Amino acid sequence: QVQLVESGGGVVQAGGSLTLSCSASGRTFSNFAMGWFRQAPGKEREFVSAIGWNGITTYYADSVKGRFTISKATTANTVTLQMNNLSPEDTAVYYCAAPPGGLFSSTNYDSPEEYVSWGQGTQVSVSS
Q: How deeply is 107 buried, as exposed, middle or buried, from its count of CB atoms within 10 A (0-12, 13-18, 19+)?
């Protein structure tokens, strides 16, 4: 089982930036895929971004495309989500997640059901 820990959340004004990190430990993999989701109060958990096992293929929700960038370090089990030009609509708890075996089993990288390991979440609050 993979243990995931997010960090980097906080409070920022609209237009500002934050960088979230997700560190994996336990049964880790040299090449692994990872996803980021977020959940705002009263709303369902939604897909934000994902990165393939090779660290090259990336996916983004339309709402964050062009503002967020996902990347991962090949020498460390860490995935980073750089968030720029934040708006109040980005306020949520952000979670990182890993699929079974570190690999996507299908093209459903944007579905929470694709993932089995989740971090505890980190709060991102954007003020107007």
A: exposed
